[in-house]
Amino acid sequence: MKINDAGRINAINPYQRSTESQRQEQMKKSTRKDEVSISDEAIKLLQAQKSGKIDTERANKIESLKQQVSAGTYQVDAAKLAETLAPYFKQSSEN
């Protein structure tokens, strides 16, 4: 009776081949690189910022609001806030 049959050792090779092919597939997947895309609107915004076409009225308003917030004098108009939020609460209560 033979203890070590030569045919049994060859039976391991298909398993090794499948694990090697899986490793190769994983290596191919891991070498893929990430892609970044920028929307057309973002490109236009970046171009406007670079060219210096900043809306001065808007910039002045933002600066004023920053100063009010930092000084603690900014007041929220509760009626305007409620008017803006009301449609969202109406939609959520209907669903």
From TrEMBL:
Residues 20-36 have a biased composition (Basic and acidic residues). Residues 1-36 are annotated as: Disordered. Keywords: Bacterial flagellum biogenesis, Cell projection, Cilium, Flagellum, Repressor, Transcription, Transcription regulation. Residues 34-85 form the Anti-sigma-28 factor FlgM C-terminal domain. SUPFAM superfamilies: Anti-sigma factor FlgM. It holds the Pfam family FlgM. This is Negative regulator of flagellin synthesis. It comes from Paenibacillus rhizoplanae. The gene is flgM.
